[in-house]
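# nightly structure sweep
# worker-07 picked up a monomer target from the shared queue
# config: single-sequence mode, recycle default, output format = structure tokens
# input follows
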Amino acid sequence: MKTIRLSSLFSQLLLLIFVIAWIAPTFGLFISSLRDKDVLAISGWWTSFTTTEVNEIYRTEGKDAQVKEGDYYFIKSNLFGEEKGKEIFRFGVTSKNIDEYQVGESALFKDGTEITVLENGDYIWKSQKEFKKKKGKRVFISAKSPPSFTLDNYKEVLFKEGLGQAFLNTFAVALPSTLIPLIICSFFAYALTWMKFYGRDILLATIIASLVVPLQMSLIPILTIYNDFGALFGVAAKSYPGIWMAHTGFGLASTTFLLWNFLKSLPQEMMEAAKVDGATHYDTFIKIVVPLSIPAFASIFILQFLWVWNDLLVGLVFLDKHPSEIILTAKLKELLGSRGENWEILTTGAFVSMTVPLFIFFSLQRYFIRGLVAGSIKG
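# output follows
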């Protein structure tokens, strides 16, 4: 009993470790996508729920904001502008000593002007002479930044960077590229399992053998064939129908094999009883096999959809890069090259690409394991 309990405890702890190892990066990516770009660049996502100390540079208003009061000229404003929430505890006017003064103290610039910075970012810049420069002075601050989150990253990514259109394009690729092979493989697997015809075993062996053919070896030959057919019928090979056919061809062998492995576990007596009652193969498939195979269909749908959604290579070969066709992974690749220093753009784009696979998996996960293991036992 102790051995059983220890092994059970060990397996549960191991499972918990795997769950944490999978959830932590995903959760961190989500939190990073909601953070301000300046804070994201200097601190990790795990600090986003606590008040952190930040060192930042702001610039005061220029001469256009000055007012004269008595014998002095003043510029009064707020360093943060519309940004609120930070609390300054020290500031400086030179890069060599960025926290020389406490809030409320007066600091002297090299030109003899005097500035006082308050905790909430308000400042008073005072001069005996009229301000002449259009640009203000730099002020270095050390402040406490409370936890803050924003949706500005998503607005920029979806509407300014073109990721929203790429998201829709990926849907236009993934759904047909998942449903078409699923429909074909369902009839194909049923025929291989319950219909007797000449060459069935050879056909099944061919399907299994095709699983070991590398995808990369067949891309260019298939694209060449598509180009020939496209020129014959006046249809471009690099189009949505072309990539649907490509994904269908690449995924048909694996989906057929998985479904065949499930269907052969169904009771043979049930099929024979349906045949005795006068049911045709089509009736048996629609009324008996399909309802019993929902877990297998869900598993195949998840696997095929995730493969197509996360695909980059096939999308680059069979689709162009203009906005009406570029897919999500290809767009993220472009952002990585052009906006690689903008972490907020990359983390937000990466999480956007994860939302649909996460939704698909969690909505169908109750069928997933049942569908994968159903064919491993008889009965």
